[in-house]
Amino acid sequence: MRPKLVPLILLALAAFAQPGFAAEAPERPAPQGGVLSLLPPPQVTEHSITLGGRKLDYQAKAGTLSLLSGKGEVTAEIFYVAYTQQSPTPAKDRPVTFVFNGGPGAASAYL
């Protein structure tokens, strides 16, 4: 056999052997009481600011989004802060901005 062919064959065998070692972890039950019960309820406050001579009313909301298991049980909570314009007229088409932060390569500094 050619010397370059042996490493390629070994690499291919290793790639095909990997799925046999991977086993699905059994689903854990949702924590009852625990730390999730310590989270406060969502908090909503009303604010206004004047920009360019125009008053802008908005609402700030801090809360959590529940992550559910396949059985519909809460397994985790993700914290968020949302600022929503309180407009007396129907909203026009406008862009929505999603800003996130978390983990290497996903920092909001790049947005």
Short description:
This protein has 111 residues and is α+β, with helices and mostly antiparallel strands. It has one helix at residues 5-21; strands at 43-51, 54-68, 74-85. Strands 1-2-3 form a 3-stranded antiparallel β-sheet, with no helix packed on it.
Describe the structure in your own words:
By secondary structure, the protein is α+β, with helices and mostly antiparallel strands. The protein has one domain (30-110). It is built from 1 helix and 3 strands, in the order H-E-E-E. The longest helix is centred in the first third of the chain and has 17 residues, at 5-21.
Task: Indicate the topology.
Elements (H helix, E strand, L loop, with lengths): L4 H17 L21 E9 L2 E15 L5 E12 L26
